[in-house]
# Entry
Amino acid sequence: MMDIRPGHLSAPPVIRREEYRAPEWLVPEIALEFELDGSRTIVRAALTVERNGEHKLPLHLDAKDLDLRRLVVDGKPVNYRFEQDVLKVPIDGDRAVVETEVAISPAANTQLMGLYESGGLLCTQCEAEGFRRITPFPDRPDVLSRYRVRMTADEALYPVLLANGDPVAQGKDAAAGTHWAEWHDPFPKPCYLFALVAGDLVVNRDTFVTRSGRSVQLGIWVRDGDLAKTEHAMAALKASMKWDEEVFGREYDLDVFNIVAVADFNFGAMENKGLNIFNSRYILADPDTATDADYDAIAGVVAHEYFHNWSGNRVTCRDWFQLSLKEGFTVFRDQQFSADMGSRAVKRIEDVRMLRAAQFPEDAGPLAHPVRPDSYIEISNFYTATVYNKGAELIRMMHTILGPDRFRAGCDLYFERHDGQAVTCEDFVKAMEDASGVDLSRFRLWYSQAGTPTVRASLAGSGAEARLRLEQIVPPTPGQSDKQPMPIPLKVALLDRDSGDVADERLIILDQARMEIPLGDAPQRPVLSINRDFSAPVVVETDRGAADLAFLSAQDDDPFARYEAMQQLMLDTLTAAISGRGVDHEAVVEAVRRTLADPSLDPAFVAEAVLLPSETFVGDRMERVDPEAIHRRREALRAELGHRLETLWRDAYAAHGANRYEYNPAAKGARRLRSIALGYIAAAGAEDAPALARAQFDRADNMTDRQGALGVLANGDSPEREVALAAFYDRYRGNALVLDKWFSVQALSTRDDTPEAVEALFRHPDFILGNPNRLRSLVGAFAANQRAFHDASGRGYRFLADTILAADKLNSQTAARLVPPLGRWRRFDEARAKLMRAELERIVAAPGLSKDVFEQASKSLG
Ligand code: B3K
Ligand code: ZN
# Structure
């Protein structure tokens, strides 16, 4: 990494995990008073502080962009110092009350951290370090306080006033036109969980009775007109509350649980105690505007935030290096919930696809970091797929190694031991160990070593002599050149090539660099099924050829392994073609034919199984990414599949056609398969494909079908394309979430002119740089479109860098999240790599760059 950044005196400081020190002062109580106003809000705070241990150090209060008007200790002025966003306050005794008053401007807050305005609402986002933009406070997760909050606001502008915990009092000053409300949260919490919302909102109310008989008032608050779109989120919330009681024994603990949807939000949602704040895209849904994937994501995120009430809020993180303690665990919990609510097999396939699309490249690139990172410049950059999704895989591996009962005992012990505390990933593993008696000492390497391990597996011998040879390679990653072998839980089974029978599945823990395992009574012609259910987040390399993979894709009894065999077969076929080792589509065509024709399979599974691996995924598995060749060869295979199996695609299309919209797993699976079939019919070059798509688009009674058809049209150049895009725009121009789809579908198009089209869309009047959803829907989607983004001219790189620099001036967190695609430069040819590096260098050299973007861009050059 560079030491000096041009335009700045020196690189921003690096925070290290090893340097953790307990807080010098604790804040058991805080009382906050807000005089809310969009352009100038006054915040008064009274902190009861207590010296923590024997020392003479001053109290440190983080304060960012605050106009400090008053600071007194026990009512008296003191000589405080202000150094680099920290107030250092001298205190004589061991206990004191520190009062402050600051002014802030929510309307001028484009970072969307702290208190900000979104569409006339006032709302907050404090995780990770936003509270310091609201009031001076020790802004670290290991300082837990009881909060009392009083808000006063203009009653006409902000008729609803919400905060954490339970409401305790309210009143009004009719003469002044103001009203006030007081909320009290009895559970001590870190300041990152603080929240308030003020605005003109309507509510969907419901109740949930907990298993111990307490009645909880639920509220989902949205803008007028959106109420009808909250039913799905409410159903998901109630299902999550029940599921967490049944599966994890966790009950809700306050009298109210509120959710508010806002249009401008950096992330998906936030688990503030008793007052979750959501990006509206993860709340609002009706069949006309939300796809099945949106519905699923809403249920998953609502559950995720709710589950944080225990895994995150009641038991929180000691420091931000422990982020995966709450995030990995909570992602695992929401994945299990969604699996229980729908198809477990399909959910697992989706989760693995997501891991491979987002986490594997991260782990293989310059931004690779362990699930528990060792250092950071800006913590916002560490809300990553590694911390979240690989973190969830770590929890899942413990679940696999311990088995469900001992895993549950470990969770119970963890919650019992640490309720009300701020703890570490180590504390979680220790609870698992103590409750199960299983030694997890080597397992801890999964938290400290970055990089996706590769497992090489092969069978030797047969019958009683059969052995499984395993080898693991953990690649070097930035700052970690030497790796130790990790315990890798591999679910393994052998299939009998002759009868198709599956011998019992066993769990093998590969915990050495190499192992050879006798398999006992293997069949005479065994076929290896390995990493079943994706039991470990690794890349598996085997010597299984096309015949074995085709056999597994038809016979394996583990649905994930069956899907995986098909993916491997497709991948091998594509990489052979791309690297000039010959084009032989036969095995794939036959395997897809068999899958499509198998009436015993769930259409949702079929839809997953017949999809080719994405262009990016193919690239990730190649020595050098050749985006053009990957695209060409993949399109050729798609065309051949479309053409050779056209009758089957048409049958599938028709079979799942005429149904009226319903929302249930069977109907969802049918819609998914139908859109995929339409895509193959179009790939085959069928003359009627645009008309079919157009008819589906026009007649659709739901967004899944409409968007599916639009996606197919957007990839082509039929006259129907422009008509459909224009019709879609006209119909939904007033709906920001649907307009995001209109931008994305064009940014993801496989057409040759996508780079120009995206640049033009950037100048479209509906493109809003400051809205994170809109920015991601156009620019994030484009950067994920491998061929278009990696256009040999380099215009995609230049466009992305320009956008990052422009966005950084408004919202550094969101800008920084656009950097990683440029960090893949090592994977490309020299010409592209040079162009990508030049853009990263241009970013790093830009004056006034945020530390968020600086960290991502400078490390990406690495
Ligand atoms: N905990 C929040 C993340 C907020 C990130 C801010 N940089 C959402 C979640 O994981 O539930
Ligand atoms: Zn989370």
Q: What stands out?
A: The chain has a mean pLDDT of 97. Residues 127-128, 267, 269-271, 304-305, 308, 327, 380, 383 surround (3S)-3,7-diaminoheptanoic acid (ligand 1) (CB under 6 Å). The chain has 27 helices and 31 strands.
